[in-house]
Design brief:
Elements (H helix, E strand, L loop, with lengths): L13 H11 L22 E5 L13 E10 L3 E11 L4 H32 L9 E12 L7 E11 L6 E10 L5 E2 L2 H5 L3 H15 L18 E5 L2 E5 L14 E5 L16 E3 L2 E2 L6 E2 L5 E4 H7 L3 E5 L4 E6 L2 E6 L5 E5 L10 E3 L6 E3 L2 E5 L1 H6 L3 E4 L4 E4 L1
Parallel strand pairs: 3-4, 11-23
Antiparallel strand pairs: 1-2, 2-3, 4-5, 5-6, 6-7, 8-9, 9-10, 11-12, 13-14, 14-21, 15-16, 16-17, 17-18, 18-19, 20-21, 22-23
Pfam family, one: DUF3298
Keywords: Signal
InterPro entries: Cu_amine_oxidase-like_N, DUF3298, Mao_N_sf, PdaC, PdaC/RsiV-like_sf
């Protein structure tokens, strides 16, 4: 089975890929049942068999599940390998049924389109070169399962890989973000980042591109996200996704930009900035939080990080403060609302980093370096809880 995160292929016959993309990027929901699967390719009709699939997110109580129906067929013209996602376990069954109809219809539309194109090109082949069968592959990935622990958010994406000859095909990603409630509803970026969401996200994307300009198109610089920009949500982070070739060359794949979703974690209670902080099971002496502009709770970095087993180091040449322990590291730049984490302890490398915006930049108060408390949850993966007596941070 293909690794969904590494579906990075180059388009060969762009007109075919764009046509299939139009079929995939159509209406978000189709009302009514999906029609039976139909294929223009010659040969026996493929079978659709329900098969359980391991979800990317382990099921929790009240969680939705992602399975798939397998549709496979091979002819001289077309190789079809579709695992059409099927969602179950949603609270709103009517919405779930419509969603599944939409997923099936999109897959069918893409399959019909590529089958028609394959037949046309196959019939037109004059034998001057061997005809290589076209192909369509569909895979999906669950990011958030709609359970209470996922904030009631159901988020998944569907990858459609289309091959029309040549060295490579092209992959299109379609994303779904839904509030799993008795009356389910789609989640939009505006719902997560407010009415000024475009400016918030554009600033984050431009800041990240500025760090790695050679990885992106220079002749057509990024200006703004689209009204229907693709994104997924996982563990309180929104990943804004760009299609292949949208803002970067083939080698960059599908660029993703991570932004922490405001207010996703445990709600910060009133008066939290007056509470003592416990980290690693012990009270952190001298750890006095404060509330920054916008209501962001700021906490001292060094004493909390060290209590959790991290070591801090400062690299003057890059103005970065690194927070690391065996197997993981993160860094901050004072005054910059960009926080990065990476596997391993290589301070010099930027490979494999995830970058986040957390609502406020690191700041120095009274000679102490402060960061948003979300730095510990979103970047370092720690757990934060609040009681009337203290703020508890553990990992």
């Amino acid at each position: 089975m293909m690794n969904n995160r590494n579906l990075t292929y180059t388009r060969s016959r762009k007109h075919t890929v764009k046509t299939a993309a139009a079929a995939l990027m159509g209406t978000a929901l189709l009302f009514g049942a999906a029609a039976p699967f139909a294929f223009a390719a010659e040969g026996d009709a493929p079978t659709a068999v329900p098969i359980a699939v391991a979800a990317s997110v382990q099921p929790h109580a009240g969680a939705a599940q992602l399975a798939f129906r397998s549709v496979q067929q091979t002819t001289d013209q077309l190789e079809t390998d579709m695992q059409i996602p099927v969602i179950s376990g949603m609270k709103d069954k009517a919405y779930q049924n419509t969603l599944n109809a939409n997923l099936a219809a999109r897959a069918q539309a893409a399959a019909d389109d590529i089958a028609k194109q394959a037949k046309t090109d196959y019939d037109a082949d004059n034998g001057s070169y061997p005809f290589r069968a076209y192909g369509i592959t569909v895979r999906s990935e669950l990011l958030s399962d709609g359970s209470a622990s996922a904030g009631g958010i159901l988020s998944f994406r569907v990858y459609t890989y289309i091959y029309t000859g040549g060295a490579h095909g092209g992959t299109i990603v379609t994303t779904y973000n839904i509030r799993n409630a008795e009356h389910a509803s789609p989640i939009k970026l505006k719902d997560l980042f407010g009415s000024d969401y475009k400016n918030v996200i554009n600033r984050a994307v431009k800041a990240e591109i500025a760090k790695r300009p050679d990885d992106f198109f220079l002749s057509t610089p990024f200006k703004s996200i689209a009204d229907d920009q693709s994104f997924v949500i996982q563990d309180g982070v929104a990943y804004v996704i760009f299609q292949q070739y949208e803002i970067a060359p083939y080698a960059a794949g599908m660029p993703e930009f991570a932004l922490a979703v405001p207010g996703f974690g445990a709600a910060v209670p009133a008066g939290a900035d007056k509470l003592p902080i416990a980290a690693g099971g012990k009270t952190v002496a001298g750890a006095h939080p404060y509330t920054a502009r916008g209501g962001v709770l700021m906490v001292p970095l060094r004493p909390i990080a060290e209590a959790l087993g991290y070591k801090l180091s400062y690299v003057a040449s890059t103005h970065k403060t690194f927070v690391s322990r065996p197997g993981e590291s993160a860094f901050i730049v004072n005054g910059s609302n960009r926080y990065a984490s990476a596997k391993g302890n290589n301070h010099a490398s930027s490979g494999g980093q995830a970058s986040f915006a957390l609502g406020a930049a690191p700041a120095v108060q009274g000679g102490t370096q402060y960061v948003p408390i979300d730095f510990f949850t979103t970047v370092l993966g720690a757990d934060v809880s609040y009681t009337k007596q203290a703020i508890s941070i553990s990992k």
